[in-house]
């Protein structure tokens, strides 16, 4: 009986000791180093939504009602990491731009009539390429699997597939809304340069058109070319 008890205690002690040895010999493995897709990995893709304002000098460009030229953008972005500092990538995006035209004497765009309210709506599809600089790494190279702090510098090209005028007028206490299409005073394509400052998945976006949206043969100036807004990615 005593021998059996000693044997059982010996086996139990051996198993317990073995379990403890195995448990304490475990090492934490950073699986992120073996992943190919992720915010701080070799490849990364994300969907983004942005909103902002379109601005420009009233003396040089078509007169827009203050703070009433806006854009909404949807984009799909791919980023390829080169090293801890540099990356490059491309965007595919859709922009919906709305300009509220200021009703003043001598107005010439898109017509010479004054309305109660008037908008020009432009929609385009485009693609862009960019170079990314991750400046967080200048101080700390171990930011984890996050986008970190970065600056993007890029260029893009857009195809304008829709441009129309929307007006509202009051006649005998009634509001009459009209939409006019078929204008030929705009270019089908334009290109831009952009700058993006990001903190992880939130960024500030600045852009300027490098070519005219409206044809240079028109008797009126171009629409404002500068965009400023914010973007959130998922």
Structure report:
There is one protein chain. This protein is mainly beta. The protein has a single domain, classed as Beta Barrel (Porin). It has one helix and nine strands; from the N terminus they run H-E-E-E-E-E-E-E-E-E. It has one helix at residues 2-24; strands at residues 43-55, 64-81, 86-101, 117-133, 149-171, 174-180, 189-199, 202-209, 226-233. It has an eight-stranded antiparallel barrel with strand order 1-2-3-4-5-7-8-9. Strand 2 and strand 3 form a beta hairpin. The radius of gyration is 29 Å and the shape is elongated. The model is unreliable at 1-9 and 11-32 (pLDDT under 50).
- Name of the CATH architecture: Beta Barrel
Number of domains: 1
For the residues shown, what is the average pLDDT? 85
Give the helices and strands as they follow along the chain.
Answer: HEEEEEEEEE
Span of the ends, CA to CA = 68 Å
Gist?
By secondary structure, the protein is mainly β. Helix content is 10%, strand content 52%.
């Amino acid at each position: 009986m005593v021998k059996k008890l000693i044997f059982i205690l010996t086996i139990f002690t051996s198993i317990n000791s073995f379990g403890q040895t195995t448990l304490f010999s475990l090492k934490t493995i950073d699986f992120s180093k073996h992943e190919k897709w992720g915010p701080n990995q070799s490849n990364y893709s994300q969907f983004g939504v942005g909103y902002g304002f379109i601005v420009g000098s009233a003396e040089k460009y078509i007169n827009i009602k203050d703070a009433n030229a806006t854009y909404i953008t949807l984009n799909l972005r791919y980023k390829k990491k080169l090293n801890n500092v540099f990356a490059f990538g491309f965007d595919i995006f859709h922009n919906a731009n709305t300009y509220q035209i200021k009703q003043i004497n001598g107005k010439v765009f898109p017509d010479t009539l004054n309305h109660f309210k008037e908008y020009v709506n432009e929609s385009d599809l485009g693609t862009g390429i960019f170079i990314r600089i991750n400046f967080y790494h200048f101080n700390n190279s171990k930011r984890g699997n996050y986008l970190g702090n970065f600056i993007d510098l890029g260029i893009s090209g857009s195809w304008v597939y829709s441009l129309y005028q929307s007006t509202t007028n009051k006649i005998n206490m009634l509001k009459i809304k009209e939409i006019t299409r078929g204008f030929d005073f705009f270019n089908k394509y334009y290109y831009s340069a952009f700058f993006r400052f990001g903190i992880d998945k939130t960024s500030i976006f600045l852009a300027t058109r490098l070519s005219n949206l409206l044809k240079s043969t028109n008797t009126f100036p171009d629409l404002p070319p500068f965009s400023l807004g914010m973007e959130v990615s998922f």
